[in-house]
Amino acid sequence: MAAEPPVLEIRGPLRREDLPGLYDRACAEFGRLRGCVLTVDVTGVAANAVAVDALARLLLAGRRHGWRIAVRGADRALSELIALIGLNEVFLSPAEAEARTAGTASRSRGRT
Question: For residues 38 and 63, is the Cβ–Cβ distance under 8 A?
Answer without folding.
Answer: no
